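Can't attach files on this board, so I'm pasting raw text. These are the components:
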Amino acid sequence: MNSSDLWLRLRALFHRKRVDHDLQDELDFHIQMLTRKNQLRGVDSDEARRQALVKFGGLSRVEEECRDERRVRFIENVVQDLRFAIRRMSRDRGLTAVALISLALGIGANAAIFTLMNAVFLRSLPVRDPAGLLLLGDARSQGFSASIHDSVSAYSWDLYKHLRDADILESLASFQSADNTLLSIRRPGWTYSSPAVVKPVSGNYFDVLGVGTVMGRTITTSDDSESAAPTAVVSYRYWMERLDGNSAVIGSTISINGSPFSIIGVAAKGFFGDTLQPNPPSLWVPVSSIRRISPEAGSLLDVPDMHWLYLMGRLKPGVSSVQARKRLTAALQNWALSREGSNPSPEALQQIKGTYIEFTPGGGGISHMRRDYS
Amino acid sequence: MARDNRLELLQGTLDLLILRTLQTAPKHGWDIAEQIEQTSEHVLEVNQGSLYPALHRLEHQGWIKAEWGISELGRRARFYRLTAEGRKQLAEETEGWKRLSAAINRVIRMA
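---
Top answer:
Structure tokens for the assembled complex are below.
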């Protein structure tokens, strides 16, 4: 047994429908090409397809043979492996026990260490000039909080706009800090809806990161307004796996929690978002559109003290990171003061004075693993 | 060309030809079949129906790996590429084939 075989077997076992659908799609592509070849020879389209099917030798027979390849190898391998394993293990039981325990420990520890190394050191965001990206704060708090103190890493929509418009950085994007918002997705023709991770991002998010599309366009600032038509960018993987990699999806409708959004683009192939996570976003939508997804989520737009966004930006040329940090901290404290009204309490002033913004290099993406282990 | 001039592939040689075709670049099933037919100047005909079971078998053996990509029709297609193991297998099978055909040639000349 080798690793690719094991993986394919597991996939066939747990994703039977998907695997069958993929197989049909693969064979159907071949028939299409064959039909086109016949058409180029001057045969009309119905006849061209009929001839293609004849030449192919029975679609369902080929499908069945492909499935047989899976099953035969599965049974062959399992029987072989078992026979060998039992023979060896029964020879020396004590050694077997020791071996099994060390294997279990070894595999577990290795997997954990590799994942950690991978996330912390090896990965770099597939974006333009990742080294120039800065994360404001250290992404330590996730979800949302109703106040800010000390080093700030989550920001409200209102505070974000204040810092962006203070014009201290060359560009500043924001995105939801929580990374696991599963919403119900449905497409015309789907018999049931299925969950997918949706991530609200500011209109300039793709532009600031420098991530493009393989098809269509990214979300832009003009999409990020409550009066704009609701738009969504899908991930390459979601497009391939759930939307059959069909180019006709651009401009078509996808419903998120029952609300229609228009698919405007497919994100670049290797882009899995700003956060290293096992279940990356399948869809990105403008922050301003979240009220359409749920009226309660709309409060995240309205309440200035609801801090739920992470910010990522780039320095202006010629401005040092120390200068930028100082000016951002001043802008942050000004905003917080203006929220306190004309007569702030000494405690509130004390707390505001204690708030500041620090930078984390953003090029590695946000990894909660790194957060937990550092 | 006359249909009669075409040869059915020998059992087992299809694997070798698939691996060889993938040596330069990843391809989808259609391209593999077309390239074998064209390179052999239409002498070898790939049985369209047996190509895919063979591809799936090779994939399970770990010699090739499949990945969805975009085809010239603008829709998705499964592209197969050679793995490191597949390269080794290709070298072995090529060597085996050379020995076999050399042996057969010798027998034909001697007999």
